User: Fold this.
Amino acid sequence: MLDVCLVGTGGMMPLPDRWLSSAVVRVSGQMALLDCGEGTQISLKMLGWGFKDISAVLISHFHADHVAGLVGLLLMIGNSYREEELTIYGPLGLQRVVDGLRTIAPELPFPVRCQELKGGETFHFAGIEGSCLMVDHAVSCLAYSVYVRRGRRFSAEKARALNIPVELWKTLQQEQPVEWQGRWYQPSDVLLEPRRGLKLCYITDTRPTSALPTFVRDSDLLVCEGMYGDPADHEKAVENKHLTFAEAAQIARRGKARELWLTHFSPSLMEPENYLEVARSIFQNTVVGRDRMCKTLSFGR
Assistant:
């Protein structure tokens, strides 16, 4: 299972009832944060999932509404007595940005590692496979995909036919080879065909690109910015390199996503629900995000 929650849904500046852009995913108790706008730690505190188990932070780009909350987050994690390393992922220049922010948080009880990404790389953290794509914004900006693999079914019939003792089955089920009576047995000897896992994509601060539908292909959930809801604001979206509700819905439809959550709303968009039908006319399974809206994605049969 994969738990996901929108920590903040605002763009540019926080509002009294809308914190800045951030989302959190949780797998087997381990968490990863996607973006960290100003005040993220406050909304996370309200969420109640804790801080100590955040093992990775994925930064899309270095505009303040996506990264200015990092110092407060690191200090809050430090107060949870975490000692294990935390990895921050982001575009080129990440190390310089993190070093600058940590001028006011130089001492932490855990090591912080920065991994800079150009786009197109894959990486692993907290039982999750991550990948990224460079998108089209005013500064270098990454979209992220996270994927949780599903274990293959174990065939007891195959194991018995090979006379493998029951006490070795668990190791094979965990996809590790075993030795018995001088012979090595591989997981493929007893496991059935691979099964589809869970995929979540996170896109913010970009214009539509030809690569985005492929990147989000068959995602169980697409979390995507909808800076502007009114179709009349299309020129603003082009000028500021953001997405409208309609454009986000088109990406979801072309990528055959299962569900779309809109987020990262302009401060002037006080009631994004008023434009929900604009998106739903293109992609029916669209939801207007709100702070601390959560969902559990489960494996199918």
